[in-house]
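I hope you will forgive my troubling you with a question about protein structure. The record follows directly beneath this note:
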Amino acid sequence: MAAESPSNAPLLLPFDGIAPHFGEGVRFLGAGASVLGRVEAGAHAIIAGGAVIRGDGHFVRIGDGFFIGEMGTVHIAQGIYPAIIGNRVTVGRNAVVHACTVGGDCVIGDNAVILDGSIVEDGVLIEADSTVFPKSKLGGGFAYAGAPAKPVRALVAGELEERAKRLRQAPASAAFPAQCGANVKAAGKAFIARTARLSGTIQLKNGSSVFFGCYFDAGDYAIVIGENTNIQDNTQIICGTEGTAIGRDTTLGHNVRLASCCIGERALIGIGCVVASGTIVEDDVMLAAGAVTLPGQKLESGWLWGGLPARPLSRLDDARRSLMRMIVEHYCGYADAYRLAQNELARL
């Protein structure tokens, strides 16, 4: 297994002593890919720049001929669901395959999200920007779109192959520099993944974590992250009009996109959310995966919000609050393990 050039070498790290394993012919395209822990992938995988495949709290198993585009993410649900992906699957840019099962010959469009416990049968097309809600079952032979993703039409002969070809041949993005300069202050046990790219003034308080592939640009302002808050893989924070502040014990899921905003304590911003400039998320808020806020919107404490645009759906109950606390605890553990793995790699 070899990268296309030394500068493009991926970050490969073990978790709990188990290292990733690929079949023959794997290629890494572009800088900053991360493959971590209990990952087994078949022959001829193609991993684009910034992509993250992470098998820590459960395993990831991928078949032959896999492709994942720039900033794409594959992850698991700790102790609950692995991520299992069949042969000849194509995953687009900034898409997330999370703790689910995806059959062979599937195409997952840019910015699409597949959530926990879902089963996607062979031969499915998931259109760009769609969200597959948890525990969904998508039958083969159809194109799905929307949030929640629903069948919109039957596929025609050759359509999957053509769509996969288009995603695989998309030109590399020049949107993010391979390296960034930053004025970073990281307190105590704060963790920063080696493939995170940070630019500007950034303050991480004790126990906070910035995971693999994240991109922060504070511009002329500052990004402040509270204690024990986790920012998960491939999340982007780009300040435009003012700084961004995130309270303690908060989770930002994979591939979240934030502009200048304020997020309170004990909040959860779900996978693939887009938080617009000037948004205020109060303490104790859950924003459902794939939701989008409006500029200047205020999300009231104690509610589950979701949709496009985000609206209050239901009051937070004990089960949701327990889940939010559990994610914070899990990510403190992940951060400790990956800090040790990165330090060990640096000593080699």
About this structure: Residues 1-7 have pLDDT under 50 and may be disordered. DSSP finds two helices and 38 strands in the chain.
